[in-house]
Write a structure and sequence with these properties.
By secondary structure, the chain is an all-alpha fold. It folds into two domains: 344 residues, Na+/H+ antiporter like fold (Up-down Bundle); 59 residues. It is 78% helix and 0% strand. It is built from 22 helices and no strands. Helix 3 packs antiparallel against helix 17 and helix 17 runs antiparallel to helix 18. The longest helix is centred in the C-terminal third of the chain and has 30 residues. The protein is globular and about 85 Å long.
Length: 530
């Protein structure tokens, strides 16, 4: 098979593995990595080799843009100090801890040891967030873990770029120079993303066609990344994340109509799934090729090195979470604000959620084969193996045990407050609609029948929302009434759908007419929720 046919094969395998993961209730990134590992060791099956630069340019911009889009700037600002400490302080702590172990025990040179530390410093939240959504952990746990990964991808890769320059001999190391470069590259990425967001987003209202809007929504993150990374030489990752945050915040006013917004969200959902699925399967496929370059190392020594580096990565994270947050009196005096308090249960879950993923592997694959003088970069193959071993251990070991840890600690979000807040928001929206209806009637002299029908519709919604709030969010009785109401509405819509299908079958209406009506019914059914 050529590369395109192999890629199609892998995408089909990824879809099947994701469905199987859903059946056995395992986060699909874990299942996909294991599936890719099995495919890689199966004789006769295709192995896709994608240049790591392609992973950075093709895969990362939409994934990072989507992560920023669905994050809340208000929540990130509320947890900014905790996220910043993790995305910068923990990244540096991980780099130094891994570098020390890699140099003194594994035997890597100091420059290459720091390269390995920088590679393993950023986290991948995909598997953790999938578990969080299913089990309902406290919101701030998910916000901190997700916000950390948004920023530490950028900070970790900025450190990686500096370390690779020193390891390859292309640059000399200077603590002051490295610190300034770090600030300029990271700060420049954030600034570029913000400027582009302020420039581009106001122009969205000029795009009225849904297909054009969705196309630009995909292309712009690539443009932001390339402009920042390749032309301005600042952090493309932080630029895309910043742009995604701004786009997500302004999205309710960006799209020209509701239909376009629904189509865009549906398209992006499929796109992100495809990219993530391919990434994790490709990640699992890389191990056979990596092992083929390590014939000179005994298996026992490789396993020892892998376990050691994994324990250092995990230990650095545990040590950070169980020391630095308890220094909040110092931070309170230093920053003149109250540091976010947490419980040891939350710290333990956030520590165990620090999984590594495709960003780390892509970074490892970009480590040059030779130094600036043309000599082979000794130890590169071992860096690749240790990176993959840590990714596999964090995803599989921590990913599979994280649900049991959350349940054992009893760390669950009290969903009552969130449900009541949602009902109150829906209630305010319905009341605003009734108020607007009164003005429309006065300005346009609506026929009494039309006005009465709309008023009864919104008054019914208000009564249901008020009943839910009075019931405390979701009592059994209210839940049963709501479920019954949704069931009736679906039955009625299904009756409409069957009627128009019969009319299409009998030639009374055209297939195009049927599809227009069916689309309206589908949208109405999707609003029922549940």
């Amino acid at each position: 098979m050529d590369q395109i046919e192999s890629l199609i094969f892998l995408l089909g395998a990824a879809a099947l593995l994701a469905q199987l993961a859903r059946v056995v209730r395992i986060p699909y990134p874990i299942f996909l990595v294991l599936g890719g590992l099995a495919l890689g060791f199966t004789p006769g099956l295709p192995t896709v080799e994608i240049p790591p630069e392609v992973i950075f340019v093709v895969f990362l911009p939409p994934l990072l843009n989507s992560a920023g889009f669905f994050s809340s700037p208000l929540d990130l600002r509320a947890h900014l100090r905790a996220i910043s400490l993790l995305a910068i302080g923990l990244v540096l702590a991980t780099i130094f801890a891994v570098a020390a172990a890699a140099h003194f025990v594994v035997g890597l040179s100091w420059p290459l040891a720091f390269v390995l530390g920088a590679i393993l410093s950023p986290t991948d939240p995909v598997a953790a967030e999938a578990i969080f959504r299913r089990l309902g952990v406290p919101e701030r746990v998910g916000t901190v873990v997700g916000g950390e990964s948004l920023i530490n991808d950028g900070s970790g890769l900025v450190a990686f770029r500096l370390a690779v320059g020193v390891a390859s001999g292309a640059a000399a190391f200077s603590p002051i120079g490295a610190g300034l470069d770090f600030l300029l590259v990271a700060g420049g990425g954030i600034l570029v993303g913000l400027v582009l967001a302020l420039t581009i987003l106001p122009l969205w209202s000029r795009l009225e066609d849904a297909s054009i809007q969705i196309t630009f929504s995909v292309l712009i993150p690539y443009g932001v990344y390339i402009l920042a990374e390749e032309i301005l030489h600042v952090s493309g990752i932080l630029a895309v994340v910043t742009y995604g945050l701004a786009q997500g915040w302004r999205s309710p006013r960006l799209f020209s109509n509701a239909s376009t917004r629904i189509q865009a969200l549906a398209f992006w959902g499929v796109l992100i799934f495809v990219l993530e699925a391919l990434l994790f399967v490709l990640l699992g496929q890389q191990l056979p090729a990596i092992l083929g370059t390590l014939d000179e190392y005994p298996v026992a020594k490789l396993l020892f090195y892998a376990v050691l580096i994994y324990l250092v990565v995990l230990g650095a994270r545990l040590a950070f979470f169980f020391t630095v947050p308890y220094l909040h009196p110092v931070f309170d005096r230093l920053f003149r604000s109250r540091y976010l308090r947490g419980t040891w249960r939350e710290y333990l879950v956030m520590s165990w959620s620090g999984m590594r993923g495709a960003v780390s592997l892509a970074a490892a694959l970009t480590v040059p084969l030779n130094t600036a003088d043309g000599d082979p970069l000794v130890g590169r193959d071992l860096v690749l193996f240790l990176t993959f071993a840590v990714i596999l251990a964090t995803l599989v070991l921590q990913g599979l045990t994280l649900p049991f840890l959350i349940k054992a600690l009893g760390l669950r979000e009290d969903g009552e407050a969130a449900r009541i807040a949602e009902l109150q928001a829906r209630l305010q929206g319905s009341r605003a609609a009734l108020e607007r209806l009164g003005r429309i009637r006065a300005e346009n002299e609506l026929p009494p029948g039309n006005e009465q029908g709309m008023r009864e519709y919104y008054e019914d919604r208000i009564r249901r929302y008020e009943a839910g709030i009075e019931a405390g969010g979701m009592t059994d009785e209210y839940a049963e009434r709501s479920a019954a109401w949704r069931g009736w509405r679906r039955d009625l819509i299904e009756a409409e759908r069957e009627a128009i299908i019969r009319m299409r079958d009998g030639g009374e209406i055209s297939p195009e007419t049927m599809r227009r009506i069916e689309r309206d019914l589908d949208l109405e059914e999707s609003r029922i929720g549940g």
